Amino acid sequence: MREFNVTQDDTNTLNMLKRIKRFSQIPEEDLQAFIAAGKFREYGVKEVIIKEGNIDSWVYFLLSGSIRIIKEGRVVGYLKRLGDIFGEMDALGGSSRSTSVVAEAKSLILAIDTSIVEEQLRQDKTYFCYLIYRIFAEVLAVRLRQMFEENFKLKTERPPAKAVPAPAKPVVPQGKSPSPPQQKKKSESLQEKKILLVDHVEPTRKILRTILVQDLKCGAVIETTNGKNALTILQEETIDLIISELDLPKMSGTELLSSIKRSERLKDIPFILLMSDANTIQINATLQSQISQCLLKPFTANTVIEKIKEAFRKS
Fold first, then answer.
1. Average pLDDT for residues 240-252, to the nearest whole number?
2. Each residue of 135-155: pLDDT tens digit?
3. Which superfamily is assigned to 190-314 in CATH?
4. H or E stretch at 75
5. What 3-state class would DSSP assign to 73?
6. How confident is the model at residue 94 (pLDDT cuts 50, 70, 90)?
Protein backbone atom coordinates (compact mmCIF):
# COMPACT_ATOMS: atom_id res chain seq x y z
CA MET A 1 0.00 0.00 0.00
CA ARG A 2 1.24 3.47 -0.90
CA GLU A 3 -0.11 6.44 1.04
CA PHE A 4 0.16 10.12 0.11
CA ASN A 5 -1.41 13.51 0.80
CA VAL A 6 -2.99 15.77 -1.78
CA THR A 7 -2.12 19.45 -1.96
CA GLN A 8 -4.91 22.01 -2.07
CA ASP A 9 -3.92 23.13 -5.56
CA ASP A 10 -4.18 19.61 -7.00
CA THR A 11 -6.93 20.42 -9.52
CA ASN A 12 -6.84 16.95 -11.10
CA THR A 13 -7.83 15.28 -7.84
CA LEU A 14 -10.48 17.90 -7.08
CA ASN A 15 -12.01 17.45 -10.53
CA MET A 16 -12.05 13.67 -10.05
CA LEU A 17 -13.87 14.01 -6.71
CA LYS A 18 -16.38 16.43 -8.21
CA ARG A 19 -17.40 13.65 -10.61
CA ILE A 20 -18.75 11.78 -7.58
CA LYS A 21 -22.43 12.69 -7.25
CA ARG A 22 -22.41 13.22 -3.47
CA PHE A 23 -19.42 15.58 -3.80
CA SER A 24 -20.53 17.50 -6.88
CA GLN A 25 -22.62 20.07 -4.94
CA ILE A 26 -19.98 20.78 -2.30
CA PRO A 27 -18.14 24.14 -2.50
CA GLU A 28 -14.48 23.71 -3.44
CA GLU A 29 -13.25 25.14 -0.13
CA ASP A 30 -15.25 22.57 1.87
CA LEU A 31 -14.16 19.79 -0.46
CA GLN A 32 -10.53 20.70 0.12
CA ALA A 33 -11.11 20.57 3.89
CA PHE A 34 -12.69 17.14 3.47
CA ILE A 35 -9.66 15.90 1.51
CA ALA A 36 -7.27 17.34 4.10
CA ALA A 37 -8.95 15.18 6.76
CA GLY A 38 -7.94 11.98 4.99
CA LYS A 39 -5.29 10.13 3.05
CA PHE A 40 -5.06 8.83 -0.48
CA ARG A 41 -4.04 5.19 -0.57
CA GLU A 42 -3.08 3.07 -3.53
CA TYR A 43 -3.48 -0.71 -3.15
CA GLY A 44 -2.03 -3.40 -5.37
CA VAL A 45 -3.83 -6.57 -6.50
CA LYS A 46 -4.83 -8.82 -3.55
CA GLU A 47 -3.70 -6.27 -0.97
CA VAL A 48 -5.92 -6.23 2.14
CA ILE A 49 -7.66 -2.91 2.80
CA ILE A 50 -9.81 -4.03 5.76
CA LYS A 51 -9.29 -7.20 7.79
CA GLU A 52 -12.29 -8.91 9.35
CA GLY A 53 -12.22 -8.64 13.15
CA ASN A 54 -10.00 -5.56 13.34
CA ILE A 55 -11.16 -2.32 14.96
CA ASP A 56 -10.39 1.11 13.49
CA SER A 57 -12.13 4.39 12.67
CA TRP A 58 -11.44 4.68 8.91
CA VAL A 59 -14.01 4.82 6.11
CA TYR A 60 -13.15 4.56 2.42
CA PHE A 61 -14.24 5.99 -0.93
CA LEU A 62 -13.29 4.07 -4.06
CA LEU A 63 -11.80 6.39 -6.71
CA SER A 64 -10.51 3.86 -9.22
CA GLY A 65 -10.05 0.10 -9.58
CA SER A 66 -12.24 -2.57 -7.96
CA ILE A 67 -12.44 -4.40 -4.65
CA ARG A 68 -14.07 -7.54 -3.34
CA ILE A 69 -15.80 -7.98 0.03
CA ILE A 70 -15.20 -11.22 1.92
CA LYS A 71 -17.16 -12.64 4.87
CA GLU A 72 -15.73 -15.68 6.70
CA GLY A 73 -13.65 -16.62 3.66
CA ARG A 74 -16.52 -16.28 1.16
CA VAL A 75 -16.81 -13.47 -1.42
CA VAL A 76 -20.12 -11.67 -0.78
CA GLY A 77 -19.80 -8.70 -3.14
CA TYR A 78 -17.76 -6.36 -5.34
CA LEU A 79 -17.44 -2.58 -5.57
CA LYS A 80 -16.31 -0.99 -8.83
CA ARG A 81 -18.07 2.37 -9.17
CA LEU A 82 -16.45 5.75 -8.61
CA GLY A 83 -17.41 7.01 -5.16
CA ASP A 84 -18.50 3.66 -3.70
CA ILE A 85 -18.17 3.88 0.09
CA PHE A 86 -17.28 1.01 2.42
CA GLY A 87 -16.31 0.42 6.04
CA GLU A 88 -18.58 3.17 7.38
CA MET A 89 -20.99 1.21 9.58
CA ASP A 90 -18.35 -0.62 11.61
CA ALA A 91 -16.28 2.55 12.02
CA LEU A 92 -19.23 4.59 13.29
CA GLY A 93 -20.46 1.94 15.68
CA GLY A 94 -17.02 1.33 17.17
CA SER A 95 -17.38 -2.41 16.53
CA SER A 96 -14.94 -4.83 14.97
CA ARG A 97 -14.92 -5.18 11.19
CA SER A 98 -17.59 -7.62 10.06
CA THR A 99 -15.98 -8.29 6.65
CA SER A 100 -12.61 -8.19 4.92
CA VAL A 101 -12.02 -5.97 1.89
CA VAL A 102 -9.35 -6.85 -0.68
CA ALA A 103 -8.21 -5.03 -3.83
CA GLU A 104 -9.38 -6.96 -6.90
CA ALA A 105 -7.26 -4.72 -9.15
CA LYS A 106 -4.90 -1.83 -8.58
CA SER A 107 -7.14 0.62 -6.68
CA LEU A 108 -6.99 4.24 -5.55
CA ILE A 109 -8.93 5.02 -2.39
CA LEU A 110 -9.68 8.11 -0.29
CA ALA A 111 -9.52 7.10 3.40
CA ILE A 112 -11.17 9.35 6.01
CA ASP A 113 -10.49 8.98 9.75
CA THR A 114 -13.87 9.48 11.46
CA SER A 115 -12.21 10.00 14.86
CA ILE A 116 -11.33 13.53 13.75
CA VAL A 117 -15.02 14.46 13.65
CA GLU A 118 -14.90 15.37 17.35
CA GLU A 119 -11.92 17.64 16.73
CA GLN A 120 -13.79 19.33 13.88
CA LEU A 121 -16.75 19.85 16.24
CA ARG A 122 -14.45 21.49 18.79
CA GLN A 123 -13.36 23.90 16.07
CA ASP A 124 -17.06 24.58 15.31
CA LYS A 125 -16.70 23.17 11.79
CA THR A 126 -20.26 21.87 11.82
CA TYR A 127 -20.56 21.82 8.04
CA PHE A 128 -17.68 19.33 7.81
CA CYS A 129 -19.41 17.04 10.33
CA TYR A 130 -22.76 17.48 8.62
CA LEU A 131 -21.17 16.41 5.34
CA ILE A 132 -19.82 13.17 6.83
CA TYR A 133 -23.09 12.28 8.58
CA ARG A 134 -25.13 13.13 5.48
CA ILE A 135 -23.01 10.79 3.35
CA PHE A 136 -23.42 7.96 5.86
CA ALA A 137 -27.17 8.61 6.11
CA GLU A 138 -27.51 8.37 2.31
CA VAL A 139 -25.63 5.07 2.23
CA LEU A 140 -27.66 3.66 5.14
CA ALA A 141 -30.93 4.66 3.46
CA VAL A 142 -29.94 2.87 0.24
CA ARG A 143 -28.95 -0.30 2.12
CA LEU A 144 -32.13 -0.32 4.20
CA ARG A 145 -34.19 0.07 1.01
CA GLN A 146 -32.32 -2.84 -0.60
CA MET A 147 -32.90 -4.98 2.50
CA PHE A 148 -36.62 -4.13 2.48
CA GLU A 149 -36.92 -5.01 -1.21
CA GLU A 150 -35.13 -8.34 -0.66
CA ASN A 151 -37.36 -9.20 2.32
CA PHE A 152 -40.48 -8.22 0.38
CA LYS A 153 -39.38 -10.42 -2.54
CA LEU A 154 -38.84 -13.38 -0.19
CA LYS A 155 -42.30 -12.93 1.33
CA THR A 156 -44.03 -12.76 -2.06
CA GLU A 157 -42.20 -15.87 -3.29
CA ARG A 158 -42.99 -17.88 -0.13
CA PRO A 159 -46.03 -20.19 -0.44
CA PRO A 160 -49.05 -19.12 1.65
CA ALA A 161 -49.26 -20.68 5.09
CA LYS A 162 -52.00 -23.18 5.79
CA ALA A 163 -54.97 -21.82 7.68
CA VAL A 164 -54.99 -22.75 11.37
CA PRO A 165 -58.43 -23.39 12.87
CA ALA A 166 -59.43 -20.90 15.57
CA PRO A 167 -59.34 -22.29 19.13
CA ALA A 168 -62.71 -23.29 20.55
CA LYS A 169 -64.34 -20.77 22.86
CA PRO A 170 -64.30 -21.86 26.52
CA VAL A 171 -67.62 -23.01 27.95
CA VAL A 172 -68.79 -20.68 30.73
CA PRO A 173 -71.10 -22.22 33.37
CA GLN A 174 -74.52 -20.59 33.72
CA GLY A 175 -74.58 -17.71 36.16
CA LYS A 176 -70.87 -16.89 35.73
CA SER A 177 -69.43 -14.25 33.46
CA PRO A 178 -66.09 -14.84 31.71
CA SER A 179 -63.03 -13.23 33.32
CA PRO A 180 -61.92 -10.07 31.52
CA PRO A 181 -58.79 -10.53 29.44
CA GLN A 182 -55.60 -9.32 31.15
CA GLN A 183 -54.32 -6.10 29.69
CA LYS A 184 -50.70 -5.83 28.73
CA LYS A 185 -48.74 -3.40 30.85
CA LYS A 186 -48.23 -0.25 28.80
CA SER A 187 -44.56 0.73 28.54
CA GLU A 188 -43.70 4.17 29.84
CA SER A 189 -43.37 6.66 27.00
CA LEU A 190 -40.15 8.57 26.37
CA GLN A 191 -42.35 11.65 26.04
CA GLU A 192 -42.51 11.65 29.83
CA LYS A 193 -38.73 11.49 30.29
CA LYS A 194 -36.44 14.35 31.28
CA ILE A 195 -32.85 13.97 30.07
CA LEU A 196 -29.70 15.81 31.18
CA LEU A 197 -26.93 16.40 28.60
CA VAL A 198 -23.47 17.21 30.00
CA ASP A 199 -20.92 18.21 27.33
CA HIS A 200 -18.78 21.32 26.85
CA VAL A 201 -18.84 20.99 23.03
CA GLU A 202 -21.92 22.86 21.81
CA PRO A 203 -22.28 21.15 18.38
CA THR A 204 -22.28 17.73 20.07
CA ARG A 205 -25.09 18.86 22.37
CA LYS A 206 -27.01 20.24 19.38
CA ILE A 207 -26.79 16.92 17.53
CA LEU A 208 -27.88 14.94 20.60
CA ARG A 209 -30.71 17.39 21.38
CA THR A 210 -32.03 17.03 17.82
CA ILE A 211 -32.06 13.24 18.12
CA LEU A 212 -33.73 13.33 21.55
CA VAL A 213 -36.40 15.88 20.64
CA GLN A 214 -37.16 15.06 17.01
CA ASP A 215 -36.55 11.30 16.85
CA LEU A 216 -37.34 10.13 20.39
CA LYS A 217 -39.87 12.88 21.27
CA CYS A 218 -38.42 13.20 24.77
CA GLY A 219 -40.37 15.40 27.14
CA ALA A 220 -37.54 17.71 28.17
CA VAL A 221 -33.81 18.07 27.53
CA ILE A 222 -31.62 20.07 29.93
CA GLU A 223 -28.07 20.99 28.86
CA THR A 224 -24.98 21.98 30.82
CA THR A 225 -21.25 22.22 30.07
CA ASN A 226 -19.60 20.78 33.19
CA GLY A 227 -20.01 18.27 35.99
CA LYS A 228 -20.45 20.77 38.83
CA ASN A 229 -23.41 22.41 37.12
CA ALA A 230 -24.81 18.94 36.42
CA LEU A 231 -24.81 18.09 40.15
CA THR A 232 -26.64 21.35 40.92
CA ILE A 233 -29.28 20.55 38.29
CA LEU A 234 -29.68 17.02 39.68
CA GLN A 235 -30.42 18.44 43.13
CA GLU A 236 -33.09 20.76 41.73
CA GLU A 237 -34.68 18.65 38.98
CA THR A 238 -36.06 15.13 38.65
CA ILE A 239 -33.90 13.61 35.89
CA ASP A 240 -34.67 10.28 34.20
CA LEU A 241 -31.43 9.82 32.19
CA ILE A 242 -27.96 11.38 32.11
CA ILE A 243 -25.75 11.52 29.00
CA SER A 244 -22.32 12.82 29.96
CA GLU A 245 -19.02 13.36 28.15
CA LEU A 246 -16.01 11.68 29.78
CA ASP A 247 -13.69 14.69 29.44
CA LEU A 248 -15.35 17.64 31.17
CA PRO A 249 -14.02 20.90 32.65
CA LYS A 250 -14.13 21.42 36.46
CA MET A 251 -15.29 17.85 37.08
CA SER A 252 -14.72 14.84 34.79
CA GLY A 253 -17.46 12.49 33.70
CA THR A 254 -16.13 9.74 36.00
CA GLU A 255 -16.07 12.14 38.98
CA LEU A 256 -19.63 13.14 38.20
CA LEU A 257 -20.64 9.49 38.03
CA SER A 258 -18.96 8.75 41.40
CA SER A 259 -20.84 11.62 43.05
CA ILE A 260 -24.12 10.36 41.62
CA LYS A 261 -23.53 6.78 42.77
CA ARG A 262 -22.86 8.02 46.35
CA SER A 263 -26.29 9.63 46.48
CA GLU A 264 -29.23 7.46 47.54
CA ARG A 265 -31.62 9.66 45.55
CA LEU A 266 -29.57 9.75 42.35
CA LYS A 267 -27.70 6.43 42.20
CA ASP A 268 -30.34 4.58 40.14
CA ILE A 269 -30.57 7.16 37.32
CA PRO A 270 -29.38 5.53 34.03
CA PHE A 271 -26.01 7.02 33.02
CA ILE A 272 -24.66 6.94 29.44
CA LEU A 273 -20.96 7.83 29.12
CA LEU A 274 -20.04 9.69 25.93
CA MET A 275 -16.45 9.26 24.71
CA SER A 276 -14.13 8.64 21.77
CA ASP A 277 -12.24 5.47 20.87
CA ALA A 278 -9.09 6.93 22.42
CA ASN A 279 -10.83 7.05 25.83
CA THR A 280 -11.81 3.38 25.92
CA ILE A 281 -8.58 2.43 27.71
CA GLN A 282 -9.85 4.42 30.72
CA ILE A 283 -12.91 2.18 31.07
CA ASN A 284 -12.09 -0.32 33.82
CA ALA A 285 -14.31 -3.04 35.25
CA THR A 286 -15.58 -0.89 38.12
CA LEU A 287 -16.56 1.97 35.83
CA GLN A 288 -18.13 -0.45 33.35
CA SER A 289 -20.37 -1.85 36.10
CA GLN A 290 -21.58 1.62 37.11
CA ILE A 291 -22.59 3.00 33.71
CA SER A 292 -25.66 1.92 31.77
CA GLN A 293 -24.14 2.31 28.28
CA CYS A 294 -21.07 3.70 26.47
CA LEU A 295 -21.69 5.92 23.44
CA LEU A 296 -18.67 6.23 21.15
CA LYS A 297 -18.09 9.27 18.94
CA PRO A 298 -18.73 9.72 16.14
CA PHE A 299 -22.21 8.23 16.47
CA THR A 300 -25.32 7.83 14.36
CA ALA A 301 -28.89 8.66 15.36
CA ASN A 302 -29.75 4.94 15.34
CA THR A 303 -26.88 4.18 17.73
CA VAL A 304 -27.99 6.92 20.14
CA ILE A 305 -31.59 5.70 20.07
CA GLU A 306 -30.60 2.08 20.73
CA LYS A 307 -28.27 3.04 23.60
CA ILE A 308 -30.98 5.14 25.27
CA LYS A 309 -33.64 2.44 24.94
CA GLU A 310 -31.24 -0.18 26.27
CA ALA A 311 -30.32 2.07 29.23
CA PHE A 312 -33.99 2.40 30.18
CA ARG A 313 -34.52 -1.36 29.75
CA LYS A 314 -31.63 -2.05 32.16
CA SER A 315 -33.04 0.35 34.72
1. 90
2. 656 655 555 555 555 555 565
3. Response regulator (3.40.50.2300)
4. strand 74-79
5. coil
6. low
